[in-house]
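--- STAGE predict ---
source: upstream dedup step, 1 unique chain passed
mode: sequence only
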Amino acid sequence: MSNAEQIDYWNGKVGDIWVQMQERMDLALTPVTAALLAAANPQPGELVLDIGCGAGETTLAVDAVVGEGGHAIGLDISEPLLARARTRAEALLSEAEFIAADASAWAEESGFDLILSRFGVMFFADPQAAFTHLHSLAAPGGRLVFACWQPAGRNLWATLPMTALADVLPAQPPADPCAPGPFAFADAARVATMLEGAGWQDLAFHSLPFAMLIGGGDDPIADAVSFNLKIGPAARVVRDAGIGDEARPRLAAALQPFLADGRVELPGAVWVVTARA
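--- STAGE serialize ---
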């Protein structure tokens, strides 16, 4: 997808779904958010840019730390998610700013002490150019910290639904592992080469395996099925094929072995990447 296609995609039905799922996604990604913020280590008074901020979870967390002497700006291409972020900021009396913009071209401000992202950097049509541009926005010695998914094989939350539904889904074309998408940055060596080419240095890739909570409440299995039909690689394929009713029992059976103590959790793994300008 080009950036224009991504903008259309995230301002359509998918953006609305992610707004509805905001609390569930923030809960599912709690371990990732904690690791990302620990690696970012925001400080009072810092100027921070959050790429692909979505509904604002990480931007708001950083803004609470940088305080009145600092400022946190969240960029995203999805107007529905940004509206949700602004509502949350207002409720928290946060001074965080949320801007609708393509981070690969936005340049209204620079000198950022910290540029971070929770799964917002894997969708650039030209990631090399995007990271070069972001480098130009960083202060000398400014930090880059982002979370991206490791290979799909280490992320059962993404692969299990597709496997469970393989015999009822239309045949899928082979995926380009480097195309914009959730797993575009799975290859750490490729990402390192790209970042170094963009001017970033002192790179480190921290591996974070975690249990992704996808089901809970009164009926954890039904909750997990609903999650998989709204979020993840299978969700779009199922919607396009119109097989939601057929998919539900198959997903429920596949998820049953992962139910324990009222929770359905599936293995996930991310890279928390750090670098300096």
